Amino acid sequence: DRGVEIVTTAGSDIYPNDAVSISLRPEKVLLITGESELKNTFSATLMDIIYVGETTKLKITLQGDGEEIFLKLQNRKGLPRLSRGDEVRVGWDIDDMTLFQDSEMSSERR
Asked: Could you tell me the pTM of the whole model?
């Protein structure tokens, strides 16, 4: 299972095609409604909508690997109307994620 491909900055001991896990805060995942200059953008399916006071949490499943992630949106005018099952685009800035090497898979590639 190859998962999805992500773009990151160079550094540490992570090399192209290494298997990694990422850590990403839900408020850093962005719902993309138009053009985007983000390097990491993905198609996803909206699985659940959870209203929490001034914010809404969206549970999505990334297309390609089926990974479930959450994003958090401020409730404000101009947000698109969304329903379960909608296809959406999401993304995040390179600097908003932390990478962790999946050592078992990555060491096989060296």
From this structure: 0.79
